[in-house]
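Risk register update: the risk of archive-format incompatibility is retired. Evidence:
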Amino acid sequence: MKHKKTKIIFLLLSALLVRLIFIYPQYSGDIKNHIAWGQGVLEQGTVNFYDRDFPGFNQANYPPLTIFLFTISYFLYQSVTQVLISLNQSIGIFPSFIIPYIQITNFQAVFLKLPAILADLGIGWLLFKLTKNKLISALYLFNPAIIYISTVWGQIESIPVFFLLLSLYYLVGKKHFLSHTSFILAVLVKQTALWLAPVFLIYWFKTQTLKQFIQGLMIQLTIFTLIYLPFTNPVNAINSYLATLAGSSQFVTDAAWNIWFFISSPSTLDATPFLGATFRLWSITLLILAYLIASYKLIKKPKYSQIVISLFILSLAAFFLQTRVHERHLFPALVFFLLIIFKNQRLLFLSYLILSSYHMLNLYYSLGLPFI
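Archived output:
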């Protein structure tokens, strides 16, 4: 057991080293929004934050827990920068040539990427804990698409998935309240966690007593309210969260290679008529059908093997069937796929390679970094 732990720690450190190599040179444009939001909290506080305009940047549309992570990251950037500048001014042998490099957006982006990178490592660890297989962790940790999205782009997809995976881990360990706590933290990081809420709700209801189930939901509501409290009062917390669910797009696809990308133009509004209904209505109908099928199977067979299959299927459905979806929203499927038990290891590798390659190509098609 000690030997296995040593190997997984070495694996995690190696994955961290790879990410540190790619962390500085490039970042996606969204990073500038994240910097502005974190800086905005530090300079103006959290009151009326979601009603605030950020000239030159998007209005904040992430839940409070993510905003706190951006704020901490930007504070860490400021602190490190001040220390380095102070050392440069007081110590003659300090390498002054690095000062220009720490004053540009790339260096700021390094700190904004750290939460997602740490979440990557956390997912790698949880995959090992759930599967007892280092190879499964390695398939995730060294997946170019995973590294590209969290370390090169600086997107936060791995953070809500980490908390969802943690919730599943606690479910397996029958730590009911910790499972509820982890899930609501995922929801408070990014709204996409709600796509998988039916799976968790069914599994909680089927495996917990009614008292535990209700207590768990009350814990979630309490945590939700407390984390929103610095931003708004409890009455407005839910309204504020729902307001961020609308998304930033009304197109059939927002760079995602889903079914709507291939049967229409990406510039088509999802309110456009299609086969007697709108694209949006078709999207919702197909998604509801997928949820009903997954829910029925989980109710009939509330076991771990079925929950991971349901999480994977619904992750695929959310990406391929919804309109307004971004290219990076296929990310959760790559994680939950690795939890499915395959008797044929070659089939596992081949399927994962195909899915990962598809995701990577979609990401690079949307925003190719580095620019060539």
